[in-house]
Design brief:
Helix content: 40-55%
Largest sheet: 6 strands, parallel
Oligomer: single chain
CATH superfamily of one domain: P-loop containing nucleotide triphosphate hydrolases
CATH architecture of one domain: 3-Layer(aba) Sandwich
Shape: globular
Mean pLDDT: 90
Distance between the termini: 28 Å
Strand order of the largest sheet: 3-2-4-1-5-6
CATH topology of one domain: Rossmann fold
CATH class of one domain: Alpha Beta
């Protein structure tokens, strides 16, 4: 039997200040940060994925930030297979694994395992991708909503890899992916003992921050980064359909006016934040904090919650 591994998990919507809170906690807890963000995994795509800055990355050890080739998408299952031994190694060094991100699907795969879904079908995937190329990912999202409404509620309408996988499972298994997930559990990360903290800032202020961040991004930086990326990677790369990059491609390749592209990016990111909160609110174990992670009061509240848990009956974390 493997030794138990304490985990601190910091979840929350985009732009809620997870990076700032994670850095503060990691420095006090002798922790190493493990990202469960499905787009920050890839190298070169930096500004649009809101990666930590080089200065932030240098403050504490980070894992799964910019490590993978964008041309070889990392599935949730593969993420889980690579993250578990990394987390075990962190614990073996006497340090605390601090998991940070907003991709609940990847985190679920890590902690609960994967359902025994059908293997990938390249021909079906190619047909679905062709349909998205001609009609946009939203076309696949509408199809998924008809076939598996529960999965559609949890997958962003622009997240092409997840849409394709959900439709692939539904068509090949002839059962909804959401149903297969409920029947899963045989591959759980059984030695993990997580303590959850969630950031839930006021919705209006969160949306203001999302819109302001996008406005700064579209003042020129995202277009410049995307122009350079298009010189390296094909425009058909799935990451170019993610938030921000899709609209930057619209500006550069399809002459969409910047204000229109910005408005669409802001709307997509607001909707994404809402879906993230819906996903995490289903977890009754999360200790919610009603503010942003860069707020000193919220940082103090997070530390207090951790201290209380550490001094409780299970002594989850060893604090000095």
């Amino acid at each position: 039997m493997r030794p138990e591994i304490p985990l601190l998990i910091l979840a929350g919507p985009t732009a809620s200040g997870k990076t700032a809170l994670a850095l503060e906690l990691a420095s006090r807890l002798s922790a190493e940060i493990v990202s469960f963000d499905s787009v920050q995994l890839y190298r070169d795509f930096d500004l649009g994925t809101a990666k930590p800055t080089p200065e932030e990355l240098a403050r504490v050890p980070h894992h799964f930030i910019g490590e993978f080739d964008p041309r070889q998408p990392l599935s949730a299952g593969e993420y889980s297979r690579q993250a578990r031994p990394r987390i075990r190694a962190i614990a073996a060094r006497g340090r605390l694994p601090l998991l940070v991100g907003g991709s609940g699907f990847y985190l679920r795969a890590l902690l609960e395992g994967l359902f025994p879904g059908p293997a990938a079908a390249p021909e079906l995937r190619a047909r679905l991708r062709d349909r998205a190329t001609h009609g946009g990912p939203h076309r696949l999202h509408r199809l998924l909503r008809r076939l598996d409404p529960e999965a559609a509620d949890k997958i962003a309408s622009a997240d092409l890899p997840k849409l394709i996988r959900a439709l692939e499972v539904r068509m090949l298994a002839r059962r909804p992916m959401s149903q297969l997930w409920r029947e899963a559990g045989s591959e759980k990360f059984s030695e993990a003992r997580p303590f959850w903290i969630g950031l839930n800032p006021p919705r209006a202020r969160l949306y203001e921050r999302i819109e302001a961040r996008a406005a700064v991004m579209f003042a020129g930086g995202i277009q410049q980064e995307t122009r350079g990326l298009l010189e390296i990677y094909p425009a058909s790369l799935p990451l170019f359909q993610s938030h921000g990059y899709k609209q930057a491609c619209d500006i550069l390749l399809r002459d969409v006016p910047v204000p229109l592209a910005l408005a669409e990016a802001q709307a997509e990111q607001r909707h994404y934040a809402k879906r993230q909160l819906t996903w995490f609110r289903a977890n009754p174990d999360i200790h919610w904090l009603p503010g942003f992670g860069d707020d000193p009061l919220i940082q103090a509240a997070a530390w207090q919650a951790i201290s209380q848990r550490s001094h409780g009956s299970d002594h989850l974390f060893a604090l000095d």
